[in-house]
Specification:
The structure holds 2 protein chains of 2 kinds. By secondary structure, chain A is mostly helical. Chain A has one domain. Chain A is built from 13 helices and no strands. In chain A, helix 3 packs across helix 12, helix 7 packs across helix 13 and helix 9 runs antiparallel to helix 12. The two termini of chain A are about 35 Å apart. By secondary structure, chain B is an alpha/beta fold. Chain B is about 35% helix and about 25% strand. Chain B has 11 helices and 14 strands. In chain B, about 40% of the residues are buried. Classes of the chains: A mainly alpha, B alpha/beta. The interface between A and B is medium-sized, with 28 and 32 residues.
């Protein structure tokens, strides 16, 4: 058992080595801070302004929290693209031939995005909402950051499954990522309550970690009992485990299938 | 037990439109432990498909492949741990990682412990001449340097069997010479090597045996010298200053396969037996032709004889 855990840890770690190198190639701390973070804050600001224009302070609070939390969805969804980069790098064949578990490797391979999104989403939630009537108490801040971290990681687990599917259609990776991201944000309760949608959509939305993450943040802001917040976090964790299990199976199946049709060899 | 046991290996691809293409057609090949085995063949002959099946990247459609006694289909995990692979070309590296990080990456995935990993990576970087550039990004390397890094990567787990698919493509002559020395070292340590190449001289110099593959079938497997012997029937006599009437006489001799002029003033007579060669030489001497040379075909000529006029053209 400890051998298995050590192998998984080693595989994830090597994935993060590639992940860090990619992130450094993408951003310097300046471009991340003044480019990416500012861009995301502007996005949250834009949607929050819609709430102000509606003239309902309660809806404004609703939308500012929704827009801030769902920042993590767009960022986590970048994992769809970075997973497919290996197609162009020609490393897929070597990964297929190596003893590596592809799912755990790809879990580490794109961890730069949830790591970054913990920072961007936390900043978005801590900096902007106070201007729109949302106040955090000092003891709520660590809980909030913890919920954000869990939401980002859970959403990333969901993204991994989408990414594994995108490996089969690497040319469509950006389309797959953007459409999925938009759909998730639309039904997540960020702009309109989940209850607005037809029952089957409401039911399906419960599988989305961000739905529970957002609900937990709103409960925290509303001063709900700790147990209610924890329950939502628990559902989110359960959803994350299910998505991760599905993603690991999917990667295993796709790599296994590739040995039949050569589809990952480029 | 052989290092590689390949029996009835068939691989079919389905092209767009549903049409089937058979890249390998019932290929049989055994490679003993410690042998350097060269695979020769035109583009599309099935060499790379064979390498990919042996290295567990592709599944065979039919037939079996055993690596050090382990089946590539049913015992894949054991095969993976015992194989090193170097596919040709520049791809296959993480360009944003340094040379050292690339090697450490694969060493770790192949289960080497921290201390062993460090020692092995340093040793390989030194061996392939990249120690001074170890902390530079692989993406900034020249094609030849990338190829050397590929080689080091293939050796990182100290494999019992090494698959080299066009390993010297893009290497400069010095690096190619070092590569040959490295193959010599590996042979000395008992590593079995299956190597595809288009370079006849390289195959002849490095291989204990060579296999010629054409259209997915094995044409022959022999030592480079034995392959030459096999087609010694196609001995040739080169002569300069041969009068036209003598050329006509030579062409009429029984056993003469062809009389050609590969260059200005040179007549090349190909014969089908040593007796015929003697007859040709006698006829030339009688015609007072002084510049006469008899030679044996090199591996490249054998190859061209066996795969015919298609030579390096892409297979069907």
């Amino acid at each position: 058992m400890s051998d298995v855990i050590a192998t998984v840890a080693r595989t994830v770690h090597q994935g993060t080595v590639v992940s860090r190198a990619d992130f450094r190639a993408f951003y310097t701390w300046r471009t991340w801070l003044f480019g990416w973070l500012v861009r995301l804050l502007c996005q949250v600001l834009f949607y929050s302004t819609v709430g102000v224009l509606v003239g309902d302070p309660e809806y404004t609070r609703y939308i500012v929290l929704g827009a801030a939390v769902t920042v993590c969805v767009a960022e986590a969804m970048l994992a769809v693209s970075s997973t497919c980069w290996d197609h162009h790098g020609g490393t897929m064949g070597l990964l297929t031939a190596s003893p590596v578990s592809p799912g755990w490797f790809y879990f580490g391979r794109s961890l730069q995005w949830p790591a970054s999104s913990v920072a961007t989403t936390s900043v978005a939630l801590l900096v902007l909402p106070p201007f729109f009537g949302v106040q955090w108490t000092w003891w709520q801040v660590p809980v909030l950051v913890g919920l954000v971290a869990l939401t980002c990681l859970s959403t990333y687990c969901m993204t991994l499954l989408i990414a594994s599917v995108a490996l089969v259609f690497p040319e469509a990776r950006n389309v797959i990522g953007n459409i999925t991201s938009s759909l998730v944000i639309v039904v997540s309760g960020a702009m309109v309550p989940v209850e607005y949608w037809p029952a089957p959509v409401q039911w399906a939305a419960q599988a989305l970690p961000v739905v529970h993450g957002l609900a937990a943040v709103r409960l925290l802001e509303a001063g709900a009992p700790d147990v209610a917040v924890a329950a939502r976090a628990g559902w989110m964790l359960l959803a994350a485990v299910c998505w991760l299990a599905a993603a690991l199976s999917s990667f295993r199946w796709i790599f296994s299938r590739a040995r039949t049709d050569g589809s990952l060899l480029g | 037990m052989h290092a590689l046991e390949i029996s009835g290996l068939t691989r079919t691809y389905r092209r767009r439109g549903g049409e089937e293409f058979r890249a390998l057609r019932g290929l049989d090949l055994d490679v003993p432990r410690g042998e350097v085995h060269g695979l020769l063949g035109p583009n599309g002959a099935g060499k790379t498909t064979l390498c990919k099946i042996v290295s567990t990247v592709l599944l065979p459609t039919a037939g079996t492949v055993r690596v050090l006694g382990h089946d590539v289909v049913t015992d894949t995990a054991r095969v993976k741990g015992r194989l090193g692979i170097v596919f040709g070309g520049e791809k296959g590296l993480y360009d944003r990682l340094t040379a050292r990080q690339n090697l450490t990456f694969w060493a770790s995935l192949y289960g080497l412990g921290r201390a062993e990993r460090r020692r092995r990576v340093d040793e390989l970087l030194e061996r392939v001449g990249l120690a001074d550039r170890a902390d530079e990004r692989a993406g900034d390397f020249s094609r030849g340097m990338k190829q050397r890094l590929h080689l080091a990567r293939g050796l990182v787990a100290d494999p019992g069997v090494l698959i080299l698919d066009e390993p010297t493509v893009g290497m400069d002559p010095v690096a190619a010479r070092d590569f040959r020395a490295l193959v010599g070292e590996l042979r000395g340590r008992g590593t079995t090597i299956l190597m595809t190449t288009h370079d006849m001289a390289e195959a002849a110099a490095l291989s204990d045996r060579v296999s010629l593959i054409d259209r997915g079938t094995l044409v022959m497997t022999e030592s480079p010298a034995a392959v030459g012997d096999l087609v010694s029937a196609y001995e040739r006599v080169d002569a300069r200053g041969v009068p036209d009437r003598v050329r006509e006489t030579l062409a009429g001799l029984p056993g003469v396969v062809s009389v050609t002029s590969p260059e200005e003033g040179l007549t090349r007579v190909e014969t089908s037996s040593p007796d015929t060669t003697l007859s040709v030489q006698r006829a030339l001497v009688e015609a007072r032709v002084r510049d006469v040379a008899r030679s044996r075909p090199d591996l490249e000529e054998v190859y061209l004889h066996l795969v015919g006029e298609r030579g390096m053209a892409v297979g069907e």
